[in-house]
Design brief:
Rossmann fold
């Protein structure tokens, strides 16, 4: 009997998390974005989607619900989705979130860290183009200053480094999308073996 998995993608901004998540959705996974609760709050409050507002909302939610906030707030949705098939969780952040998910999903939680060096991530983030079709703000651009600020905030305030360190698999995304997809296919084959 096939057991549904929760495959969580982690990494710093511009590493390729959304590309991997979208690819897995095309392979039949259901999508759940951890940070969507932040962006939904941005939209609800009619704020501009930018690093300053996102950080304020993100850190406010964590202040209210603790460092595991995104996992806690998304847990009911994940449990509903996983009953219908495997789920890709785009954007796992804090180590506390990792621990909540590990406690709930045990060996059915697979974490994949996507790595790219800062200079390459910053280039990618600067080249993003805002689209009116991107109503979830998934592909919003960042200046280098915004990207550096976000990196520091995620590493210093959100304990993301430990989550990346605890990943079951780490993929270096330094070449092209074809190479990244090849690596993901190998990981998914191993997960499903």
């Amino acid at each position: 009997m096939k057991v549904n998995k929760l495959v969580c993608i982690t990494g710093l901004p511009g590493s390729g998390k959304s590309i991997v998540s979208d690819y897995l959705v095309n392979k039949g996974f259901q999508l759940m974005r951890f940070g969507q609760v932040v962006l939904d709050e941005i939209k609800r409050k009619k704020l501009k989607a930018n690093e300053i507002n996102e950080r304020k909302i993100r850190e406010g939610l964590r202040s209210k619900h603790g460092m595991a906030a995104m996992a806690i707030l998304n847990l009911p949705r994940i449990k509903d989705l996983i009953n219908n098939g495997s789920v890709v969780g785009d954007g796992l952040y804090s180590f506390e979130e990792y621990k909540v998910l590990k406690e709930n999903f045990k060996d059915n939680l697979i974490v994949i860290a996507i790595y790219a060096p800062p200079y390459l991530r910053y280039q990618r983030l600067a080249k993003r183009i805002t689209s009116k079709l991107d109503t979830d703000f998934r592909y919003r651009p960042f200046t280098k200053k915004e990207a550096v600020s976000r990196d520091y905030a995620e590493l210093e305030n959100l304990n993301k480094g430990a989550t990346i360190a605890m990943a079951d698999f780490t993929i270096a995304n330094t070449k092209n999308i074809k190479a990244l997809i090849h690596e993901i296919d190998q990981v998914i084959a191993e997960v499903n073996a």
